[in-house]
UniProtKB/TrEMBL annotation:
Protein name: MFS transporter
Keywords assigned by UniProt, alphabetized: Membrane, Transmembrane, Transmembrane helix
Spans annotated as Disordered: 213-238
Organism the protein comes from: Pelagivirga sediminicola
Source organism, top-level taxon: Bacteria
Transmembrane segments: 12-30, 333-352, 359-381, 387-411, 432-452, 458-484, 520-540, 851-870, 941-964, 970-1001
GO MF term set: xenobiotic transmembrane transporter activity
GO CC, one annotated term: plasma membrane
Gene3D superfamilies: Multidrug efflux transporter AcrB pore domain, Multidrug efflux transporter AcrB pore domain like, Multidrug efflux transporter AcrB TolC docking domain, DN and DC subdomains, Multidrug efflux transporter AcrB transmembrane domain
Amino acid sequence: MNIARASIEKPILTWLLILGCLFGGLWGFSSLGRLEDPAFTIKQAVIMTGYPGASAAQVAREVSEPLESAIQQMGEVETITSVNQPGRSLIEVEVKSTYDGDTLPDIWTKLRAKVRDAAHDLPPGVRPPFVNDGFGDVFGLYYAVTAPGFSDGEIHRLATWLRRELLAVEGVADVDLSGLPEEAIFVEPELAVSVAKNVPPQAVVSALSAANSESPAGSLDRGGRRTLIEGPAGSDSVSDISGLSIGVAGELLNLYDVAHVYRGRVEQPSMILRHDGAEAFSFGVAGLAAENIVEVGHRVDARLAELFADIPEGVELSPIYQQHVVVEEASNAFLINLAMSVGIVVAVLALFMGWRAAVVVGATLLLTVVGTLFFMAVFAIEMERISLGALIIAMGMLVDNAIVVAEGMQIAMQGGQSSRQAAGETAGKTQIPLLGATVIGIMAFAGIGLSPDATGEFLFSLFAVIAISLLLSWVLAITATPLLGHYLFKRGKAGGAGAYDGPVFRAYAATLRGAIKARWLVIGGLIVITVASFAAFGQIRQQFFPNSNTPLFFVHYKLAQGSTIRETAQDLAVIEEWLGARDDVLSYTTYAGQGASRFMLTYSAEKPNPSYGHMIIRTPNIDAIPALRAELEAFGREALPQGEFRTRRLVFGPGGGDPIEARLSGPDPVVLRRLGAQVIDAMEGASPDILDARTNWREPELVLRPIYATDRAQSAGISRDDVAGALRFATDGISGGVYREDERLIPITVRLPRNATSDLRDQPVWSETGQNFMPIEQVIDGLDFEVQDTLFHRRDRVATLTVGADIPPERTAAEVFGQIRAAVEGVEVPAAYTLEWGGEFESSTDAQKSLSGQLPLSLLVMVVISVLLFNAIRQPVIIWLLVPMSVNGVVLGLLGTGLPFTFTALLGLLSLSGMLIKNGIVLVEEIDLVRAEGLPLREAIVVACVSRLRPVVLAAATTILGMIPLLGDAFFVSMAVTIMGGLAFASVLTLIAAPVFYYVFFARKDRADRVAQAPAL
């Protein structure tokens, strides 16, 4: 069936297709979901377990170990890591990449069952483990709220009100609040009065626990109606609490007789947050996965505008990050880039093929793009950075099919054929080769799109969009292009001037004849250039994913382990003052104690630690970041020498962690620390580009431990718990229940007054047996200091210490890794210990390993298709010989621009291979067809190649020029240069190398055929 001819003879079907693509595309564009980055599933869950009073080593041994042992029985689990701190276990479970997001809920249910069963065997005093699998939530609408002059209670009521109102907005999934001031009700017994009246802290705690509790009081059944009975109302003010009665030894006392009760802030909160130097809290809004984030963002903005009238004066909402604005700007930029690319294509075609061909091919290209948007909407492929880039990547390949058909049809009509004859002949010769070449182009990306890991999931839309657009381009090339050509192309007269008689065609024919004549010299030169290019490829800087083009960067600050959060926040205030005086800083948000909420899918916050500080700094544009970052680094290191001051750019794509990481695993923490120090020395000795080398175990801390005098203490009726409780009362305080204020639960803390100056050894401890107080020093043999690891990391149930390091902004992780690898691997590791690489090397290796696992199948399909197209071996071999040579132009392009070879550049290389094979198939197929007409081999090669000169050159030119809009995109620039440089050289390969190889492969057969056909003498 000749589809092209049928499209002209039955135009109604073709017009339905055209209108369907046009209006379907408009609908698709308006209804497509919009995201900043493609969604990829974070296949991690965290199990948090409290074990008050236990050391980090105890937590690892008594809590993490039994839980990890149960979890590892799950076949779905890839890696189990844990961070063990005094009193707390945090276990991260990562699921194997082969499981997709749809299977995760069942896996998390199974995980919870395993954890629940294992929890029965945990020691007494361990709190129930909590499994959190909500790591995938992205709070892309992220705001800071400042309310100077407002009380802590008012700030909490404001935050609760904002959250309640925004949760009611259509499309909002969750609202996350953080950085709110942490309050407590402090009950501070006067020590002298308490001892004199024999009022133990526990008596105060017991009274407080019952003061505001909620207990059922039953119900009455009267006359067939039930009446519920509520318990008595609890204390609802601080004054009520201070008036509580305490019964001690038959005597009734009021709490205010023995203690001072007041409400205040916790001295050491879990987080301190400031925005532009002012105290603040943050709220982040997450949209539903099925919703368009741009529309959700506008609804939230509209609701905030409505609420603004009710927000008290003085309260300011400042955006930290607005995903919907970023996405909308990216969508608008895409339209501009798309219009530029289409305009460039049409202009080039008009210049070399005339305006009629430009209109035909340009219209086909536009229909392909809008039709792709329609199918993206149908298959729920969001419009985001990768899918939009895929459309521009595919632009060059999309125009190939239409150019080949339009060129052949136009030439045939100029030779006197009717439009139907021209369409039938052109499509009859090319539709199958073009289909095969299109499928091969799609399969070039299949390895990435079908990769099961996070990188493959992140880039899946690239494969999907390219597959849709290329297949649609083939359909439209053999339907819409012939119909539009039927309307626009003019029919010439038979016997007119040849279409390829121009000076450019004659010059190319002469060059090609010379190349065939000097074929061995040409082949030798290509081999030398290719070998040299592969050698030069090693000089190109390697990088996994490029830096983001979002004008944000981060500060990471770390004081010595054991430093307080107040000290951390005070140090960061020095940086805030410096930033506040800068004109190149739009805003800055400071976090002490932990990082921000996940406001981008690729953002990963550090784990909570009082000695850790974090800052998000926004600049007017990304060009301002390098200079500001360098000056800030210099100032921070000089002004805060007591801490570790680092800055970090935001990076595209999945990943995380430090750029350079080495993991050491083994049984003995002392040996691990020694090996870690040796690895740091090896890194710093091997490269000057290693910055801030450190271990994730950080510094050991001094721990004060009382020496329990067993005989004396037991004789006095004082247990170890009594001693610990007395010390806790004298320091952090004892929990006395909660104070209910609307929906808030404010903790009540019973503690020694802050102005008390007594030594810990003088602290009295209550004896339940003797019903009296006694000095704690009578039941202990002193206080002893010991050094402990308070950050104890494990990986797959083995103690694991990770050495991490940063690198200068102008260097890539691959460059620095190459400098240090041999030195680090030369560190002698004992038999029971292992050394593994993490960081960007591991991420890149895993991604490439996953990709390489899919590539063999993709390559096999591509090879099989090329063989089936020709039903021969030599033609496919000729085409595939060109593929390794495509690296020549890539090397020239990347070395010339100084850009690194990133993962996106790898995409460009695969795309380039697909384009090269596609052009090679069409060219070789044309040579076969011309030879079948009886022309001699050399002449058939020249005639066929000349007829394909314009399609090949125009396809390359339009693709290269169509990449220009991507040169300003930080994510796609290296890929654009890869395609532009590679395709420029690949065009030479197609037009010179392919014909030369064809002649070499078929010359002997041609001579044999001519001898066989020669008349016998």
